[in-house]
Design a protein that fits this description.
Layout lengths: L5 E2 L2 E2 H14 L5 H4 L5 H7 L1 H4 L8 H29 L13 H14 L8 H12 L4
Antiparallel strand pairs: 1-2
Length: 139
């Protein structure tokens, strides 16, 4: 028996398909930018609404997109650390077992950028690695 629930005149499957099509066809103004490596400065600009949740966006769609990209970028980076350390057989960072929040990562980057402003021109991945290694060194 197929699991379909009526939603108005559509089934759940049809509703999900329509949502997916709408998302895929939605214009993304900075699609070229999304495909390239971000500098730390670009990354921090993308994360501005995570850094300052009192900031009022001019375009809510852009703010939502950038916030999602920021959090996804951080989450993906954090998720890759245990795999990378296991795969290489080296421990570079010792993250707390209680976890690391996006705010912790952004604060650590801010500390490193204050120490070395040239880090703004480096890749966001390099900045995150340097910041987290400074914040969570292995003893």
């Amino acid at each position: 028996m197929e699991n379909t629930w009526p939603v108005g005149r559509c089934t759940v499957k049809k509703a999900l398909l329509l949502c997916m099509l709408a998302l895929l066809s939605a214009p993304v103004s900075n699609s070229q930018e999304l495909a390239t490596e971000k500098t730390t400065a670009q990354f921090l600009k993308m994360c501005e609404f995570v850094i300052d949740d009192n900031k009022q966006p001019q375009k809510f769609e852009t703010a939502y997109l950038n916030t999602g990209l920021c959090l996804g970028y951080i989450s993906g980076f954090l998720d890759s650390i245990p795999f990378l350390q296991h795969r290489l057989g080296k421990t570079f960072l010792c993250l707390p077992t209680s976890g690391v929040r996006a705010d912790d990562v952004l604060q650590a980057i801010a500390v490193q950028v204050r120490k070395d402003p040239s880090l703004l021109k480096e890749s966001a991945r390099a900045a995150m690695f340097i910041a987290l290694r400074g914040e969570y060194p292995c003893q």
